[in-house]
Design goal:
6 copies of one chain form a homohexamer.
Chain A: E1 4-9, H1 16-25, E2 31-37, H2 48-58, E3 65-70, H3 74-80, E4 85-90, H4 93-109, E5 114-119, H5 129-137
Parallel strand pairs in A: 1-2, 1-4, 2-3, 4-5
């Protein structure tokens, strides 16, 4: 059976660090689904449609990779897509504590769901979506942090 | 003199992890007061009255445990209840850094006030109120994380 | 050429911990510019004009120290003031992870900009502006945490 | 092609925490090789032959799992066994920092080698081989921490 | 029944940070037993008899405090002294991870044993016995770190 | 007066990460003294004389940089060389906790001594001398981690 992993996040925006995890994930799983959480109560900075387009263009022709948006529990989304794995990147110890908590909760909600972690490559580990938004808001050049033009 | 400890928090909601700390606290202190911070500027997800009810039912008949709500400095609340101790749970290093800061400030505001820490039992350490709210918002089953039905 | 360092922050409020870093910074750099970020989208608790006044009075007669407000990227502010250094304090590991991320981003935006860190003196390491605001909001005495009367 | 992962360690002794990672690893990889580092310069507490026996008995009949000993670089061992993955468990932030360093070094030595991390299940996260050795040295009962009798 | 806590450690040497925890512990427990681990396989820098003497002199006349040496599992020592509590100081996140592991193991070995943590006061949090030994070895003045002359 | 900083360490071996800190340090200080601790009680893996040679060749012609060996307290060494600063690199949170402790002790021993920290550049942050020794011991290629041939 195909090994399907979901790579969930808000991706506001999707960064070179996220790209790093997705590409490395395709060497582990048959299929990686980039799932952009569409939480109507949280305002995004970058439009979700734009992000879907940019990610689609980035991975065009790479059949192992799909992009979707979703507005439900990740643990339920996994069932819908027959995904037995969540894929997550770890950049530092702050990420670790947070991801640990989320992974245990997802396991409780769906005991068949395994969260698999890769450590973000050092050159991308300092990139955070929130810092990119802050730089972009002030008109700074964020192209070094993104794998596409914006 | 009775040893009274205050267990302060927003408890939005009160979790099995919180219950773990309260029960273990009653083996150290004569009385543990669960004090739900009622900060009018922050919107709660679970109603404070409902939370008081649930906690009261959970510990019914256990005379060492009381529930109150408060809207003042914890350091002052302690004086009012003749409590010389604050009781806090530590789940991970992120908690540690935050609690360290709060404990020193409380000591500065009230030099007689000692903050006593228990490390949350491993099976509850990944439970956070904010994650529970997120799961509940999406209609997920949070009963595994709460010591009462909701 | 004079070595100019910018000490950026929101300083809401400026604490004894901040003062500690500034004074120690003047032993390393010829000039330290305290730069209060004036982000119009984030509401402050203490007025920025009041904070400028308080800091100016605190360091009156100390020619190595200047206070400014700014509303742009720190990396660009540094160019404007011919500052080759950012000065930052580290209180704990949570600070470290955040500052690491910001420092790398600033280096990417302005490769001539070096971020220099001092570890906050232990007696000030537990002081955080957000906790001070919380205490002040409830009418608590924050004078122990501030190097000026408020 | 089969996905082969090496789970390297000194396993002095192999714990329930290690067993947790191996079993969960078999749901990701086709084959998991438990590789006991045989560093002649470091004295072991539990004999390596005994540990190989115990692990073999534990996983008897499970064809996805193999135990070996080795005395070379993990990055080279991987080549020998056509393993493209290292499997590692993360228990806490201290583990994270160490594993991050090791993973980058292994990537440098063998760019085809990907380190995949699982977070140790909470009930096993506090178990460390060094603490078990300490307890055993004093005649304490370590059976709760080991998946076999000793 | 009296609440007895054991404060275990190697105390090589006993520092002002340790004194801080002991004194604060006497406000929580009826009796605090400073238990110096006497591990024959680890060489000490400061003689254990000298340390017992120094600690005895430090707390002379304070009947809540006792000093002992021991060479067994802490969990068993607690039974012998009818101690239901272990008292431990936390200085930073590295301490936290280690103490978390030890506390869970002690709980497994003796389910009646509760480990209670105090955060070391900031002015003592940077003092570590190993650094003191290093300074003393080079003839440096360690009097600022010790609550007695040596 | 010239600003002199000491960069102390065991440098067993001196890595690209160390080189990164030294070079960036010369943009802050007039002079950086690389001080190799020569602790006779600890056995080195790489000979101290070889390391002095390698570092000298690396920085030949760069007058801001000097290499020395020493066998005394760093706080006293600083006095001897009229150095008012210690320069240290931070790679991660584990480093932070350790360096915090050392910096406070040095300040206590020599109140004029300021420890200045730079965060190691991401591409070098995973390099640790102890891992390099381990790789070298097994005949692995460590050239990617060292700024000189060995």
């Amino acid at each position: 059976m195909d090994k399907v992993a979901i790579f969930p996040g808000s991706f506001d925006p999707f960064t070179r660090g996220h790209e790093d995890i997705v590409r490395r994930g395709t060497a582990i799983f048959d299929h990686v689904i980039i799932a952009i959480g569409h939480n109507t109560s949280k305002r995004r900075y970058f439009k979700i449609e734009e992000m879907v387009d940019k990610i689609n263009q980035l991975f065009v022709g790479e059949e192992q990779i799909t992009v979707i948006t979703y507005d439900e529990l990740t643990a339920e989304l996994a069932v819908k897509y027959s995904a037995a794995y969540l894929l997550r990147g770890l950049r530092n110890t702050t990420d670790f504590e947070y991801e640990n908590s989320i992974a245990q909760v997802n396991k409780t909600l769906n005991s068949d769901l395994e969260t698999v972690f890769l450590i973000t490559s050092p050159e991308f580990a300092s990139i955070s979506s929130s810092v990119i938004r802050e730089v972009h808001r002030y008109g700074g050049d964020v192209s070094a942090f993104l794998p596409y033009a914006i």
